[in-house]
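hiii so um. not sure if this is the right channel but i have a protein structure encoded as tokens and i wanna go backwards to a sequence. like what aa goes where. can anyone help
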């Protein structure tokens, strides 16, 4: 059965974006090696679906060409939109409704919950996150959009120091 993985980065003080919703404070990978060090390449091999909120979608669209045309993407939104791409769909479902529809799909691949914070909190409230990969950027923002999750329903399974002061923790959902 596939897992829903929240793979996300925060500032040292727990923000996923600055006060204007921007992420330009995050370091950009310079090459494939950087992506490998941060576990992103491994994540891309594990998944076939990406989930995100509409604000995250709008922000990513502002970066240029869509980076994941080989992954089916679902944008959680209350507003209608047309992406113009067959691999980007909108959904008005709640997280629980959506996951119940796709968990039984014929795939052994996992699902990446990209963000943002409100969508991640909705998934967490419903107990729908199986794994969290949290990268902490050594930067203090003081204000912004907080991730705002507690990790009490998870076990810390690994903690790594990456390059340039970044750290990455992996949490797995506690089983009963």
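sure thing!! here u go:
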């Amino acid at each position: 059965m596939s897992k829903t993985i929240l793979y996300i980065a925060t500032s040292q003080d727990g923000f996923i974006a600055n006060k204007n919703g921007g992420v330009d404070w995050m370091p950009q990978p310079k090459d494939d090696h950087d992506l490998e060090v941060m576990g992103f390449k491994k994540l891309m091999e594990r998944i076939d679906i990406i989930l995100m909120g509409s604000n995250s979608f709008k922000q990513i669209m502002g970066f240029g060409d869509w980076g994941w045309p080989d992954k089916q993407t679902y944008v959680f939104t209350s507003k209608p939109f047309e992406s113009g791409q067959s691999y980007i769909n909108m959904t008005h479902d709640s997280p629980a409704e959506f996951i119940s529809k796709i968990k039984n799909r014929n795939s052994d691949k996992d699902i990446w919950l990209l963000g943002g914070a409100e969508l991640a909190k909705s998934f967490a409230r419903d107990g729908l996150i199986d794994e969290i990969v949290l990268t902490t950027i050594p930067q203090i923002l003081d204000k912004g959009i907080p991730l705002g999750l507690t990790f009490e329903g998870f076990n810390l399974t690994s903690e790594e120091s990456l390059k340039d002061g970044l750290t990455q923790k992996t949490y797995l959902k506690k089983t009963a």
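oh and The two ends are 17 Å apart (CA to CA).
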